[in-house]
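fyi for ur records
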Amino acid sequence: MAQGNEFIVRGVTSRGIFVSVDERTVVFLSRERFKGPLIVNLPWDSPVLNQIAIKAEGKVCPHGFRFPNPDLFISVSSANKWSALNLWSPIPLPGSAVNHSQISSFLNVLQSRASAPNELVAAALQAINPDALPRLEDGDETTKYIHQVYQAVQTNDLPALQSATHYLAGRGRGLTPSGDDFLLGVAYGLFMLPYRFRAVFEPASAMIVATVKKRSTLISANLVECAAAGEVDERLGAAFQALLHPELPPDAAIRGILGWGSSSGMDATAGMAVIMAVMKN
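which gave:
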């Protein structure tokens, strides 16, 4: 972060504050303990944070963020660096016994524990097992394009993948729309399974990142770009490992997914599940 740069608050949530530190980068000042890319975990949770409003401005100082109103300095001098790659590396060789039934089982458990059914998880289930579930209406565009992602990655069809990505990018509400979160999961799945997707990994990832940058929020663009380089929230990384290793208890991973945003964890898991299902074909 360049010292002296002005910043602006892009979003305020119960979990933290999104701060745009320049034209290309958003940092999340988090009240939570979960780690991830572009996250600064605050060591305290002062009520004064509740006075920070969207579009509030300030300056980047040598050791943190200075807000003039309210008069507040948030120090990042003691923040620890964290990388998902220190925990989970790309898998160079096939070694998991995961199959479509196990992937679907994980997604079904996730749906059953959510406060409301998730559209993208339902669409992922339909793409993975089109003959095992009731056919959805032809007008369901989201399901159509998620199935197109599945088929495009399976056949290395980059134009078809680009068409589906164009539809999904920016689709949905919030600071990180649901379509972007799904694409984040796709990008991370491609990165983590290079032996299966070496023919399309680099061009597909670059295309997904570029499309989200053009069609969606700066926050989404940052997070998708990080995922394409293997950097994700620790809850998403744990969910990927839970999908990959169905013999392990999934409860902790599912709690983490359900606690990540309003639906972001479920949306991103749907993207990872679709990629992992392609891996087994």
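The chain is about 45% helix and 10% strand. thats all i got for now
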